[in-house]
């Protein structure tokens, strides 16, 4: 396939995915990040990062060069994904970083954070680090965390597994003391 054709298809895909674009308000974003498993400790940093990088727009796309693009809410760079098929350091398609499902974006953003820290995001460094962070504690969901009673799809099992894992880690630490 010629690369021009590849670009055409990609643009078409992007256009289609554009229909699923979502722009969150600050409190909607806070709610969504709390519903996923973001820790409260760094949540205002994540919200600041997202506001600076993508304006809370799930379909934000910044094209620096044909090889250097930044995708979605977290503006994750091309080295973390692959166009058209799964790949990159997050083993996902870049297109999946542009839709309104931010669960996979979040998993990938956390991978970026693990590997490179917040400093990966130059706008976090320039406009969030050491600055006043968004006042998300005013958001209703900060005080009253969103209900997990009806999590979509497999969230419940994922959460259950995590609790078990955390618990067994703690047991491992406690066991030698017994
Ligand atoms: C949430 O949990 C998933 C799987 O348990 C993990 O891969 C992801 O990094 C976690 N995200 C956050 C924000 O902690
Ligand atoms: C969100 O980003 C897309 C892609 O860059 C753009 O077309 C759209 O206008 C943006 N939406 C808003 C409300 O800024």
Automatic annotation (TrEMBL):
Gene3D superfamilies reported in the protein's UniProt record: 1.10.530.10
UniProt cross-references to Pfam families, sorted A to Z: Lys (PF00062)
Limits of the Glycosyl hydrolases family 22 (GH22) domain: 90-108
InterPro entries in the record: Glyco_hydro_22, Glyco_hydro_22_CS, Lysozyme-like_dom_sf
Top-level EC class: hydrolase
Domain of life: Eukaryota
Keywords linked to the UniProt accession: Antimicrobial, Bacteriolytic enzyme, Disulfide bond, Glycosidase, Hydrolase, Signal
Record-level Gene Ontology MF annotations: lysozyme activity
Catalysis performed (reactions): Hydrolysis of (1->4)-beta-linkages between N-acetylmuramic acid and N-acetyl-D-glucosamine residues in a peptidoglycan and between N-acetyl-D-glucosamine residues in chitodextrins
Region (Disordered): 139-163
Signal peptide start-end: 1-21
Keyword Hydrolase: yes
E.C. code: 3.2.1.17
SMART domains: LYZ1 (SM00263)
GO biological-process terms attached to the record: defense response to bacterium; killing of cells of another organism
Membership in a protein family: Belongs to the glycosyl hydrolase 22 family.
Name this polypeptide is given: Lysozyme
Organism: Chrysodeixis includens (Soybean looper)
């Amino acid at each position: 396939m010629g690369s021009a054709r590849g670009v055409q298809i990609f643009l078409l895909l992007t256009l289609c995915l554009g229909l699923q674009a979502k722009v969150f308000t600050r409190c909607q974003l806070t709610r969504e990040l709390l519903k996923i498993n973001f820790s409260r400790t760094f949540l205002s940093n994540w919200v600041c990062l997202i506001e600076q990088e993508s304006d809370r727009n799930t379909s934000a796309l910044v094209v620096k060069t044909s090889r250097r693009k930044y995708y979605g809410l977290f503006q994750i760079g091309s080295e973390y994904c692959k166009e058209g098929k799964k790949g990159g350091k997050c083993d996902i398609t870049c297109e999946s970083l542009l839709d309104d499902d931010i669960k996979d974006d979040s998993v990938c953003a956390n991978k970026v954070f693990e590997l490179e820290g917040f400093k990966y995001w130059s706008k976090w460094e320039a406009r969030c680090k050491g600055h006043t962070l968004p006042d998300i504690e005013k958001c209703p969901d900060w005080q009253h965390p969103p209900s997990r009673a009806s999590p979509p799809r497999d969230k419940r099992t994922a959460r259950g597994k995590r609790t078990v894992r955390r618990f067994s880690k703690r047991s491992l630490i406690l066991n030698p003391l017994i």
